[in-house]
Amino acid sequence: MCGTRCSGSLAVRYGTMKDNVLAMKVVLANGDLIKTANRARKSSAGYDLTRLMIGSEGTLGVITEVTLKVQKIPEASVVAICSFPSIKDAADVAIATMHCGIQVSRVELLDEVMVKILNDANGTDFQVAPTLMFEFIGTDAYAHEQNLRVKKIAEEHQGSGFQYFDSPEDKETLWRMRKEALWACLAAAPHAEAMTTDVCVPLTRLADCITKSKEVLDASPLLCPIVSHAGDGNFHTIILFDPSNEEHTKEATRLNEFMVHTALAMNGTCTGEHGVGTGKLKYMEEELGYEALKTMKKLKHALDPNNIMNPGKIIPPHVCL
């Protein structure tokens, strides 16, 4: 989690890993053990080494200890779901909800392909249409009040079948289904492999990006369900393909590249939470520019002059000092 600066469905409320780590201990390439910070909630003492290490994917050091923030468990929570005629309508509601200042802890968007897969895997009968899942937290009265506010917003965008759940069993069942989405996809195509990719754009561009991407995904012969952390502009596509089929592999790669270039054209990022590794190296210069990558290379060389820490990741090989 720290290595890729990743997050999940609760990031819209609590932030990503960079927002939840106070300090860490890291072993550098020369064997030095450093402490990046103390436990104070804020500090302006020197370079922010904690943030430097978070997202470095093991290229600058080995993280051996992490000091995390502890979040309060909310008094109450309500989960709501609602269906929409198009994925754009669903995304527009997610955007409107965030812009209204409603304190949600999760806003998840599933396209109709994903909803059908989850229905088949779990024996449920949710409407097969683009769907939003919300979670509201706080006092019992506050959570239910926010639920009603979002219901009104959804109805203004052609939302239908709005349901809410406040029993622990129902809430657990719904979030378990969401968390197991990848495994449900693999079960839906047992002879396929999954290319899981993600992009993230400014929230105001989510509807445009996800709509444009879905048009291309729907036209593909491959099964490509979408799931999105819609509250922070991040969405994933699980591209199911046969790796032994050259045409499938080319098509999966084409779809991934289309999503990335679409997001970058909207001032987004090639990866919201999965990290760069080697798979997204080729997009780094387009996203950040050569000078930024050269600066990263200088930092890498200063801390790891012999290039022994996870070499070949994050920084493209053509970047020179």
TrEMBL record:
A single GO cellular-component term on record: mitochondrion
Keyword annotations of the record: FAD, Flavoprotein, Oxidoreductase
Name of the top EC class for this enzyme: oxidoreductase
GO BP term, example: lactate catabolic process
UniProt-listed PROSITE patterns: FAD_PCMH
Cofactor field: FAD
EC number of this enzyme: 1.1.2.4
GO terms assigned for molecular function: D-lactate dehydrogenase (cytochrome) activity; D-lactate dehydrogenase (NAD+) activity; FAD binding
A Pfam family assignment: FAD-oxidase_C
Domain of life: Eukaryota
InterPro entries according to UniProt: FAD-bd_oxidored_4_C, FAD-bd_PCMH, FAD-bd_PCMH-like_sf, FAD-bd_PCMH_sub2, FAD-linked_Oxase-like_C, Vanillyl_alc_oxidase_C-sub2
Domain FAD-binding PCMH-type: 1-73
Coiled-coil features, chain-numbered ranges: none
Family stated for the protein in its record: Belongs to the FAD-binding oxidoreductase/transferase type 4 family.
Protein name per its UniProtKB record: D-lactate dehydrogenase (cytochrome)
Species in which this protein is naturally found: Ceratopteris richardii (Triangle waterfern)
